[in-house]
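Can anyone check this?
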Amino acid sequence: MAEKDKGFQMLFSYDNFIHAFAGATGSVVAMTAFYPFDTVRTRLQADDSLKSMGPLQAMKQLTKEEGVDTLYRGLSPVLSSLYCSNFVYFYVFNGMKTLAIIKGLKASSGKDLLFGYISGCINALVTTPLWVANTRLKLQGVKSSDNSQQNVKRTELKGLIHGVCTIAEEEGVAALWNGVQTSFILSGNPAIHFMVYEALKRVLLRSKIRSGKNLQLSSLESFLLGGFAKAVATVLTYPLQLVQCRQRAYRSNGSNLSVSQIIAHVLRNSGLWGLFKGMETKLVQTVLTAALMFLTYEKIVSLIYMLLSSKKSKYRLNK
């Protein structure tokens, strides 16, 4: 009974909150810095008129036709959704790691992969409505060149909350979880990301222990580990990310195609490499974003623990 109470207390501890806050804040900082790449990647995935263009060419074309502002379209709702999403993910992931420690389980890549996948599924259930609304906001007013889609008039979305409410009202509540099945599969992306990151981090910290160095990752180490881990996860799961993006975009134009139908359509029109369309932009954007996110995350966690330790020391001296 005491062990259960201890597990419950640690699950809702300051430690988990600190990691969740740091992870969410790091993701917002990183996304703000590299948001134009995310916009271009979304447009490359969803708009066939840009399929022959590279990332920089597409960015130049979009800027020329729609202005520089289009590269930052929907930034505010994306940041809101991203903060919620990463707060949930980091909290659940670190909560499960905490419970594993209480149970006396040794850290391993297999456990990190499992914890990461479960965290991703919970995150998908909670935040998919926000991301569905985000995709609609980003693609709002964009004319589709895909003849398989019907142009259905939709109410103009004025923001994230308005978008969620409008989609639920016009298309039903179920539409807010459009593509959630793909999200469950795509939960393998952050799971692989965290597994690789944690594995490399353990190896590096063990090396530091043997050499008697400071048991903290340097800024460069955090940046490189976060970026490399994300590159591995992105390459392995990119086709499913493209399918998910198209599934949400098609729904906004009146179509409700299944995953297999979208894959067949892409293969028929663009061939096998069509499933990797926009991956260059995705790699640049996600690798840099993940690298900066983990750098910020590690620094915030270290700073908070340092401040808490300092306050505890002052408290003891004043007693």
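Reply from J.R.: I decoded it. Residues 146 and 242 are 15 Å apart (CA to CA).
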